[in-house]
Amino acid sequence: MRFEFIKDYREEFSIEKMARLLGVSRSGYYNFLDKGKSAREVEDIQLKEQIKNIHKKSRGVYGSPRVHNELKRQGKRCSRKRVAKLMREEGIQAKMRKRWKKTTCVNEKAEPSANYLNQDFTTEEPNRVWVSDITYVWTEEGWLYLAIVMDLFSRRIIGLSMGERLHTDLVSKALKQALFSRGVKEGLMHHSDRGCQYTSKEFKELSSRYGVKLSMSGAGNCYDNAVAESFFHTLKTEHTNFYKYRIREEAKSSIFEYIEVFYNRQRAHSTVGYLSPEEFENQWRNMAQNVA
User: Fold this and answer.
1) pTM, whole model, 2 decimals?
2) Which of 34, 78, 236, 281 is 20 to 30 A off residue 155, Cα-Cα?
3) Nearest by Cα to 239 from 157, 151, 174
4) Which CATH class is domain 129-291?
């Protein structure tokens, strides 16, 4: 009778929660449901349930590689191809919408810094190399511009500034926020494109005051700042493109929540071993303390 109840309401409620409330095991329910099926078929049904939970928890942004990695973290052994097959069968796919196009305002008279980063996107510890960029999001009130500063080590967003005007103050505030939250290490490098905000006198003076070494992409080479641009692609295709913002304040709250709650603390990043930026930094910190 209890298994029948779970079967009747499995589309509305979590099987795990119903089994717990009714005092039965999930494995018992699956055995009841799948009498006569092979062990492989029963396991596939259980896997699909786990995949659905992982996909839902990821806000619908995880594809098969990240779902597969999360299953491994939960102790489930299965191939990535099998996960992809089961996701196709259930119509589960990573949330992705619209292509993203980047534009940069360049001041031809300004003197940009050299490209010291030179597409070397690896660093051995936090606060050695930060990367920055600007993008914009449409609201019914007009454009909302945002600038970010990311720590290249963990891919964590450590500086965020949003406003209705595309002025130098936008990138200066993002850098100041990063400096306030992380401090400055000797030799810290800040990399950006050659946008007029970054080549401005005001921004150069701010960086010099804190001893930050500026690095800028080569002319017309979008790959030189690929990591920061990739973040904006993720932000838009996973989040903002799915919303119609009425006012800028609504967009600001939505973007802040995505970055601080999900992106920095929960979202698995392939570059850092499918950990979140926060998990990766904590892991590095613990290892550094053990070595010391």
Assistant:
1) 0.72
2) 78
3) 157
4) alpha beta
